[in-house]
Queue: 2 jobs
Job 1
Amino acid sequence: MAGILYVVGIGPGEEAQMTPQADEAVRQSQVLAGYTVYVDLLRERYPDKEVLTTAMTQEEKRCRLAFECCAGGRSTAMVCSGDAGVYGMAGLILELAPEYPEVAVRVIPGVTAACAGAAVLGAPLMHDFAVISLSDRLTPMETIWKRLELAAEGDFVICLYNPSSKARGDYLSMACDRLLARCSGERICGIVRNIGRQGQEYRVMTLRELRDWKADMFTTVFVGNSQTRRIGDYMVTPRGYRHGQRG
Amino acid sequence: MAGILYVVGIGPGEEAQMTPQADEAVRQSQVLAGYTVYVDLLRERYPDKEVLTTAMTQEEKRCRLAFECCAGGRSTAMVCSGDAGVYGMAGLILELAPEYPEVAVRVIPGVTAACAGAAVLGAPLMHDFAVISLSDRLTPMETIWKRLELAAEGDFVICLYNPSSKARGDYLSMACDRLLARCSGERICGIVRNIGRQGQEYRVMTLRELRDWKADMFTTVFVGNSQTRRIGDYMVTPRGYRHGQRG
């Protein structure tokens, strides 16, 4: 009998932020699959698992190996940082699923970096928001910039995933330049690095300061909307409850 | 000594989707505060707590009572469905916090309905997405429509919170009419109702079908982007991994 393929959002990293449902899915699995960094976060916690890792760019190969483990009778947990569906592996797994009709797939959600990072910064996402990845590995850069500009025009709070990498060291600055053409340099922004992991750090700053911030691939970036304020150390987007105002 | 005020995202409802960190925050609290529906989800699980509920529209009163419990020495968990920051109470609590400097606030994130609902439908959020609430209680309707239209123009996947209520029975239809002016009627959409609770149901449908769907306040709505497809029973937005295509 074929095993079950679980696509599991493990949350930002620490055990306390992984749901019991996600924990149970990993426990039920014989094989732990995923990008090396995330699998390494879990190996100590689940020492009895067979481990299946591939490099970051070999997503399809990794997914097919996971399906083959399941087809061979071993349930497999394909683990994703944060949520399983937000820039995670759920989509590719379900695209491939019709080729492996004997394998049942279950997607287990998790706490995504937008929510986990927001909690560290305070409450930046209280109003309508847009989540945009700055990685152009799979998306044309012009699409990314267009979305960023439309999100600013709509006064969405914006959460940026993958703000930087070795090959894209200046993308966050380029994004900020586009935002600065539309928003005040005093717009409140925030960054969180290593959310829920050792070395977690955060900072609330202005859009002008964000432009020169050196983000790395472990950083999540938040750009407030026109109402977002700094309250003490926190980044807070009011929703309008307080004075009954509309908007 | 003052108690701690925890603002806790409990996830969509079932215990298996509440993080250990959220569970621990509730256990550490003497008082359980929140909107009645969410507190009722937790009363059985935490029977020894003092309960503080107010009606849905009395958010500020509820927050002030929670601060006063903490100021009086009792730690309090203000519970929110899904995440604490996505249309939750974290923002208002942090807006009021400077008035209660003796009370420490901690925001505990959770699995928001966008992620939990997406996992039920398959993988609709795999690409950049926008989260928009259709409630005009605190936001002018024209702001909501503008955001919806800009999100469609940017080809974002769109997740709609609060798609309907007794007073706003036709808002989802109105939203779909605006989307139909910009997107094909065949655009793939999905709804999930009672996510992670008894009576959970979901359905993948076209935008044209969504227009006439009777959503209620326990429904979360997903509108795919131009690439979103139906694969078997699932709603899937490809990210482009598979054939190395860009976009």
Job 2
Amino acid sequence: MKVIIPVSPINSLKTRLSEFLSSEERKNLLLNMLRDIKKALEGLDVVVVSRDDEILDFAKYELKAEIVKEKYKGLNNAIKQAFDEIDDEEVIIIPADIPLIKKKHIEDILKLSKDYDLIIASSRGGGTNLLYLKSKNLIELRYEGFSFLKHLEEAEKRNLRYYIYDSFLISVDINTPEDLGEIFIHGDNTYTKNYLKGLGIEVEPKHSSAGRFVVKRR
Amino acid sequence: MKVIIPVSPINSLKTRLSEFLSSEERKNLLLNMLRDIKKALEGLDVVVVSRDDEILDFAKYELKAEIVKEKYKGLNNAIKQAFDEIDDEEVIIIPADIPLIKKKHIEDILKLSKDYDLIIASSRGGGTNLLYLKSKNLIELRYEGFSFLKHLEEAEKRNLRYYIYDSFLISVDINTPEDLGEIFIHGDNTYTKNYLKGLGIEVEPKHSSAGRFVVKRR
């Protein structure tokens, strides 16, 4: 089994955070999120796919991951390229921006994998934040948009035994300043929270249509 | 054991949804969410606390719940009043706006309750969307604000055996049009989704700092 983590290039990274974090800080945020994810994946083989050499170097030397230099456009193609370059059939695909994922989740997935062909956990907004496939070519990958529903549709169409893994912590992907709030609530002892705290970021509760957090920077 | 559901008055209800749903529709949304929650609680005794007679009538006659007419201001006081009016020690407290909760979650909580004094599941934004207490006066209730952290603090202070129950579906509370999006993704076979569909509401994916969904009404 291999865990595949596709990573967007640093310069296109998290532009929705750009009012809040400089480009250098967004890069460091990404690297810290990858450190947290790697910790959850302890003992498993990790493959990082990216077109960005700085990320690939980090993945290789610090995360001790296999690396795949992305050749084609689009997330689905990047993952398929990684599929082609590994021998393993069994894969888990996770994004680079879910730093609240824990070892416990992966242990659950490995247990469930004995009984299911496909295991999926959603992001907020109908995306896919974890996808386990007993065999990498079982379905057509359909990331982007409401991929959670599309992947379930694939599973149904092919009569796969599938399981929906319900996790709030996996659902939290970091795209907006608002999202950083969840790191402050749930991210104790993560690299990501420690990094953000070091930048002087603080979070307060709010309840309005504009969101659930006030995220500020000292 | 009793499950306590505090419910705000209908006229103060979900004002953040008011651009999108009329007052009558927001009321019906609430009643449908309560129907979904009641389904998840099948077989358990439910107590609805509210100052609103229409809600209390619905709770009594349709949900077959015990009812408590709220006398004091504030969510914590409403729950404490319910504590006073029941004989049971063991309680689960859940809000009225988490229609994606499932029977499976409650079964998990009941199993875990053998080993823990306090079980908590967070909302998005650091609130508390499920709280199990082995004995109702074990902690000081501290709803409002980042109550998830405050309740954990209470548990630590008193050396309770506590468990953080990680569920995306429980984390989804319905406060904004954006939140309705999650119902469309995850709410198949719920009263709530069926009701919203009947109103001509539709949801599309979006990825911007303004949110993850485009929620429209035909």
